[in-house]
């Protein structure tokens, strides 16, 4: 053998998924030991000669390992399904290619012991853990053949070339080389090398076959584990179903008995109800007459409501007129207030004028006094002037007296004017209040009009409803007559229900027996076909479910029966009455 290869068994078991894999338990569970390995080698004809032939390819495999890994993964990445599997691996593509190269090199390392097949089991299980379907894993070997067998062809070309070179260069008897060897010798040489190459290919195919067997074992091991879990779940489900149905079936049987008793009671009650319905028919007739009277009364109320609505509208119009009058009064009062204010201003002007007169009188009085003084100084010559001065003084005093009287009158007028203004102010306030009250009355009347209108509409609707009720009462009377006849039919149907309930009790018993058969494991496992039924009167293979099932068979019975029982019923070999 050559020096230790660049790739080898140390490249296996390096991924993170290996931490989740117990290889020893796996090898033990698939019964892969040395004895089993030897048996498989012997079965496929893998011998020491195959080992020798594989060893001579070690260097060639190692030299082409990287290229084959590249080509191998180039093919895998062309398919979406295998790309998804590669994506689930914790290794990157470079690491996966190295593992693939190691796999190729170890095919020809010459040691095919238990450790070798442990590695193969590990590889197969890891692919299963990555959820790669078996068809993809086994299909990879077809790709592998396309990549490896050309190496055998290269080996064949090299060996044939060397062999022919030797044959052509063989010396003849005289010590010279024979340039033209016999054709038979060339054919024999080529045939020998081709046979040798075929033996090499068979050696490669045998070791790959052994690898495939181990990988298949790992997949079957996983399938077996899953199947065992499903079987356990199925058995547990059957147990749970039996336990879950035990009480409901018992309750159903009890209920069926109660229904039978209730059916009899209901039949008696139905007869009594027929009599009561007849009485109801009479009452409905009376009700119809009463409803007609209500409809007539509603019509009268509707007329009164319309009159009330008219009166309310008239009241609203009168309130609108009163509001307009109050507005006019308010405007007139405002005008009077303005006139009084103007009068007060005029009186004030008169007062000012009186004060001016009063001032002139005082000045005149002073002039008269000064004139008297001057007349006295003048003596007799000023007596005439003194008399005039006295007269002027007298006139000034009279003017002052009259001015005082006018001033008093002006003050009285001002006081009266102020009283008038205050009274007008109070009048204006009262007018405003009156306007507000009239406005409130208008709002109330508006609300009343709306309420009366709504009431009138409501009463109109009541009148219409009363008419409809009258018509409906007549229909009810007719319907009650129909109900009387239906009640009679119900009584007959209840009798039929009692008979059907007895059949239901029988079906409950059948359900209970079926559940017991399922839970006890007595049911057949070959698709529901019992060997004892192979001689049935009519073949069940030609029937169709559910098209050929009897029409009277209830749906829940169809769901309850096995496929074989359904086929027997569809073929007419099983009486539906027996199933009920």
Regions with little confidence, pLDDT below 50 for 5+ residues: 1-5, 171-175, 522-538
Query: How many DSSP helices?
Result: 13
Radius of gyration: 65 Å
H-E order: HHHHHHHHHHHHH
**CATH homologous superfamily designation of the largest domain:** Methyl-accepting chemotaxis protein
CATH class annotation of the largest domain: Mainly Alpha
Helix and strand composition category = mainly alpha
Strand content: under 5%
General shape? elongated
| Mean pLDDT over the residues | 76
Tell me what the structure shows:
Helix 3 (48-55) crosses helix 9, helix 4 packs antiparallel against helix 8 and helix 9 runs antiparallel to helix 10 (383-520). The chain starts with 22 loop residues before the first helix and ends with a helix. It has three domains: 9-168, Orthogonal Bundle (Globin-like), CATH 1.10.490; 243-269 and 495-529 and 536-579, no CATH class; 272-487, Methyl-accepting chemotaxis protein (Helix Hairpins, Orthogonal Bundle), CATH 1.10.287.950. The protein is mainly alpha-helical and 580 residues long. The protein is built from 13 helices and no strands. Residues 1-5, 171-175 and 522-538 have low confidence and may be disordered. It is 81% helix and 0% strand.
Key features?
single chain; 580 residues; mainly alpha; Globin-like; Helix Hairpins; 3 domains; 13 helices; elongated; disordered N terminus
How would you concisely characterize the structure shown here?
This protein is mostly helical. Helix content is 81%, strand content 0%. The protein has three domains: 9-168, Globin-like, CATH 1.10.490.10; 243-269 and 495-529 and 536-579, no CATH class; 272-487, Methyl-accepting chemotaxis protein (Helix Hairpins), CATH 1.10.287.950.
């Amino acid at each position: 053998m050559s020096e230790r290869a660049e790739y080898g068994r140390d490249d296996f078991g390096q991924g993170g998924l290996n931490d989740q894999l117990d290889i020893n338990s796996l090898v033990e569970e698939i019964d892969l030991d040395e004895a089993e390995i030897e048996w498989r080698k012997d079965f496929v004809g893998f011998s020491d000669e195959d080992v020798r032939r594989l060893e001579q390819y070690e260097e060639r495999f190692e030299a082409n390992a990287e290229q084959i890994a590249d080509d191998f993964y180039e093919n895998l990445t062309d398919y979406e399904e295998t790309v998804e599997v590669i994506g689930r691996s914790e290794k990157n593509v470079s690491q996966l290619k190295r593992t693939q190269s190691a796999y190729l090199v170890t095919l020809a390392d010459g040691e095919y012991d238990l450790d070798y097949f442990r590695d193969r089991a590990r590889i197969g299980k890891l692919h299963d853990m990555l959820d790669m379907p078996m068809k993809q894993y086994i299909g990879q070997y077809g790709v592998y053949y396309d990549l490896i067998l050309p190496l055998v062809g290269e080996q064949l070309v090299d060996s044939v070339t060397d062999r022919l070179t030797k044959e052509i260069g063989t010396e003849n008897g005289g010590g010279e080389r024979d340039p033209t060897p016999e054709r038979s010798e060339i054919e024999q040489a080529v045939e020998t090398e081709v046979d040798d190459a075929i033996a090499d290919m068979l050696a490669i195919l045998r070791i790959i076959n052994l690898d495939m067997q181990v990988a298949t074992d790992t997949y079957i091991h996983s399938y077996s584990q899953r199947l065992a879990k499903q079987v356990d779940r199925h058995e547990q489900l059957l147990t749970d179903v039996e336990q879950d149905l035990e009480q409901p079936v018992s309750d159903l049987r009890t209920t069926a008995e109660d229904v039978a008793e209730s059916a009899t009671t209901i039949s008696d009650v139905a007869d009594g109800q027929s009599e009561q319905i007849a009485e109801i028919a009479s009452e409905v007739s009376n009700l119809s007459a009463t409803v007609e009277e209500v409809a007539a009364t509603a019509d009268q109320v509707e007329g009164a409501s319309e009159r009330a609505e008219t009166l309310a509208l008239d009241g609203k119009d009168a309130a609108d007129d009163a509001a307009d009058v109050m507005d006019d009064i308010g405007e007139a009062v405002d005008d009077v207030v303005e006139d009084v204010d103007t009068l007060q201003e005029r009186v004030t002007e008169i007062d000012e004028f009186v004060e001016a007169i009063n001032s002139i009188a005082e000045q005149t009085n002073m002039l008269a006094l000064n004139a008297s003084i001057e007349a006295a100084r003048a003596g007799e010559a000023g007596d005439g002037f003194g008399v005039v001065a006295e007269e002027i003084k007298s006139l000034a005093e009279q003017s002052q007296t009259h001015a005082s009287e006018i001033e008093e009158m002006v003050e009285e007028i001002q006081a009266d004017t102020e009283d008038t203004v205050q009274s007008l102010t109070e009048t204006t306030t009262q007018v405003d209040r009156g306007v507000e009250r009239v406005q409130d009355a208008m709002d109330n009347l508006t609300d009343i009009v709306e309420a009366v209108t709504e009431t009138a509409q409501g009463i109109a609707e009541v009148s219409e409803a009363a008419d409809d009720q009258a018509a409906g009462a007549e229909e009810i009377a007719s319907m009650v007559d129909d109900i009387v006849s239906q009640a009679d039919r119900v009584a007959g149907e209840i009798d039929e229900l009692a008979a059907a309930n007895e059949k239901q009790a029988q079906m409950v018993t059948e359900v209970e027996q079926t559940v017991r058969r399922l839970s006890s494991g007595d049911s057949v496992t070959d698709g529901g076909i019992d060997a004892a039924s192979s001689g049935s009167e009519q073949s069940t293979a030609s029937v169709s479910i559910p098209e050929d099932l009897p029409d009277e068979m209830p749906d829940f019975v169809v769901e309850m029966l096995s496929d074989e029982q359904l086929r027997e019923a569809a073929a007419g070999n099983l009486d539906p009455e027996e199933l009920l």
